[in-house]
Amino acid sequence: MIIYKNIKSGFIKDVEQGLIVEILQEKVDSLLKRKTNIAELNSWNNSLKEMAIVLYDQNIPSDSGIALEYNISRTSKRIDFIISGKNKDFKKIIIVELKQWQECKKVENSNTVVETFIAGNIRETVHPSYQAFSYSTLLKDFTKIIQNDKKIKIESCAYLHNYKLDKAPDILADQYKIFFEKSPVFLKGEIEKFRNFIKKNITSGDKCELIQKIDESPISPGKSIQDFLKEIIDGKDVFTLIDEQRTSYEKCIQIIDEYRKTKDKKVIIIPGGPGTGKTVIALRILSACIQKGLNSIYVSKNESLRNGYKKIILENDVEKTYSRARIDNIFYGSAKFSNLTKDNFDCTVVDEAHRLIERHQWTPKGKGYNNQIQEIICESKVSIFFVDEKQIVTTQDIGTIKEIKRCALKEGILSENILLLEPLKSQFRSSGADDYIDFVDNILYDENKNVLNFTNNFNFKVFDNIEKMYQELLEKNTKNNARLLAGYCWNWVSKKNTEKNDIKINNFEIKWNLANDKYYMFNKDSISQAGCIHTSQGLEKEYIGVIIGPDMIYRNNKVTVDYSKKAKTDTSLKGIGKLSQMEKHEIADKIIKNTYRVLLTRATKGCFVYCCDKKLGTYISNKLNELIK
Predict the structure, then answer these.
(1) Where is each Schlafen group 3-like DNA/RNA helicase domain found (predicted)?
(2) Max Cα–Cα distance, the chain, nearest Å
(3) Could you give the CA distance from residue 629 to residue 626 in angstroms, rounded to a whole number?
(4) Contact predicate 437/602, CB 8 Å
(5) Rounded CA gap, 521 and 483, in Å?
(6) Are strands 185-187 and 152-160 parallel, antiparallel or unpaired?
(7) Average pLDDT over residues 553-579
């Protein structure tokens, strides 16, 4: 969507007359249906004046096209500045990412993320070169006219007009070189260098013709991204489908093909417990849809899960630049749908749908439906939800089968087009030991499932000494294949004071995983820290150690909870304060037990357990001994 379009001379005139900010504000209000905050107004005022200065060069054609705040189709992303024109060989557009930054710091072990001051605090964000490059990749991969017309070329760059390199050199650190070589960064005092870049690519104007054609172009995945996904997902053994996984996958593809014939919106719900291959099926469906030419994306609220599978997908990939940008352009968080562009996507595949919430913390009140399930269904012609209701781990999580059906009906989907598939039953995580999952469920939920001895396939131990448990876990960690997880019963004091440990049990002390560690389940030094539900849900290791905190106990011949023992910094039980004691306990019982169910089912070969409540440890040990006998 074009928010502002003009030729170069017209843009400069709007800036000189002080009209540009007012024009943009009115357009954003009328076209995007949202109000502009003061920070954005100041950003436009400062950065667009700087761009006008850059464009004063008379050798940059006066009839070059200019587009501002270009809203990329299929996304909520907006390109700050676009210049269009021609040279002797190609029709060209230049994407410019504008930043007012004065400094930034590199983030270790990342070639895409930096740390800088944003929205009143120091935060992690993507490197400007990578951001501009990812926009160019998105246009190339999904814009039909660019795929079909080989004479169209896209360049990208970033302009940080306040940034002094001598004071903050990390912006050009070697780890980001792979991107700023393809998408250069221009800094304070580099106007001539920036002008030369523009003049090299654009020698004659096109009066916004190319910008207009791109905006009007159909959206469809091109052959390059189709082949890419086929290679990195379909071609990897880790994404091979087995038994029921294959059946669910083929049923989804059949339903998607039915939609293409009837044009009746569909909602598909696929229940499945831990390790049943929900994410593998989701990614294979995504790949199949892209290869069919369908505008499709993968969605999960869980950032750790998204980052984890991005890492798996891109492992050993040679072409890191395009690969990373392409994955980022089809992997999204669940908050992206609040714009409510009806039927924006052909297919949205939602992993960990049980973690969807009523209103994202950054969504303004009154905007959208304030219900992520309904927002996804609104924006998607086919919505596929993978659900495990026993992995609902906060009071904000709303992703139940009942709620998905309710939202689908509210969105006008016919009941016959809301399809609940057979639950995925085969358990692939714990060495195929379905009985281990049943054993955990019997303990946590007092279920009476018939459990066979699983200990030949899965190493499960209960320790009464946490130091011994951790030592055995370290011994198992021969190839970065073990992790320590814990219930959130200890405040995260090391976030502010890195010299202090968080979890303290007798003589044992350890920190929570680091604030900037987005790959806790993958980084080699993570075994020296403790992870929690937020960094482990949906992911796995061969061996897991679980500290069951004092929030789960054994009293009066049953497993129960004491939610007063949760850490003050834990928000999983947010909002229960006004409820009756009975209601509080009922909700806390479900949330806390579901949390430990997730932690106890992250392993493929063995799980070691230490219980802060000795009676609980004894109870679990006795249940295990009964099983072995």
Answers:
(1) 265-613
(2) 88
(3) 5
(4) no
(5) 7
(6) parallel
(7) 93
Q: What are phi and psi of 530, to 5 degrees?
A: -105, 135
Range name among 11-25, 361-375, 513-527 with the lowest pLDDT average: 361-375
Query: 428 in a domain, yes or no?
Result: no
User: Quick one: 235 and 200 in the same domain?
Assistant: no
Is 426 part of a structural domain of the chain? no
The enclosing domain of 183 has a CATH number of: 3.40.91
Question: Tokens for 322?
Answer: 């395009």
Are 238 and 205 in the same domain? no
Listed residues 356, 390, 420: the one ending a domain: 420
Higher pLDDT, 364 or 556: 556
**Both 208 and 258 in a single domain?**
no
Question: pLDDT digit string (tens) for 178-223?
Answer: 999 999 999 999 999 999 999 999 999 999 999 999 999 988 899 9
Q: How far apart are CA 302 and CA 365, in angstroms?
A: 22
Total of domains in the chain? 3
Among 216, 232, 254, which residue terminates a domain? Answer: 216
Place of tokens 């504008």: 98
Q: Are 315 and 367 in contact (CB under 8 A)?
A: no
Residue 32 lies in a domain: yes
Q: How far is it, in rounded angstroms, from Cα 510 to Cα 446?
A: 32
Residue-number span of the structural domain to which 52 is assigned: 4-216
200 to each of 59, 66, 86, 203, 614, how far by Cα in Å?
10, 17, 10, 7, 73
Q: Which percentage of the chain shows pLDDT scores above 90?
A: 70
Q: Residue 579 to residues 67, 228, 447, 576: CA-CA distances in angstroms? A: 52, 51, 27, 5
Average pLDDT of the chain? 91
Q: Average pLDDT in the 351-375 region?
A: 74
Look at the chain and count its residues: 629
Count of other CB atoms within 10 angstroms of residue 406:
15
Beta strands in 356-407 (DSSP E): 380-387
Q: Quick: pLDDT tens for 479-494.
A: 999 999 999 999 998 8
Among 310, 319, 376, smallest CA distance to 347 is for: 376
Q: What value does the mean pLDDT take over residues 302-315?
A: 85
Q: Please name every residue paired with 68 in a beta bridge, in sequence order, or none if there are none.
A: 4, 81
CA torsion sign for 617, 620, 626, 627 is: negative
Q: How far, in Å, CA of 357 to CA of 68, rounded?
A: 33
What mean pLDDT do residues 480-509 have? 92
The two tokens of residue 387 are: 């659900």
Confidence band (pLDDT; 50, 70, 90) for 37? confident
DSSP 51-89: HHHHHT-TTS-TT-EEEEEEE-TTSS-EEEEEEEEE-SS
Residue 425 in any domain: the answer is: no
Shared domain for 158 and 75, answered yes or no, is yes
CB-based burial, 565-598: b 16+ in 10 Å, e otherwise: bbbeebebbeebeeeeeeeebebbbbbbbbbbbb
Q: What are phi and psi of 413, to 5 degrees?
A: -75, 130
Using CA atoms, how far apart are residues 332 and 86, in angstroms rounded to an integer? 34
Are residues 175 and 246 both part of a single domain? no
Cβ contact 225:290 at 8 Å? yes
149 and 266 share a domain?
Answer: no
Q: How far apart are CA 179 and CA 112, in angstroms?
A: 8
Q: Convert 327-339 into a string of H (helix), E (strand) and C (coil).
A: HHCCEECHHHHCC
Residues 599 and 580 in one domain: yes
Query: Which residues face 504 on adjacent strands?
Result: 509
Three-point CA angle 483, 485, 487, nearest 5°: 180
d(CA 561, CA 227): 50
Residue with structure tokens 């089912």?
601
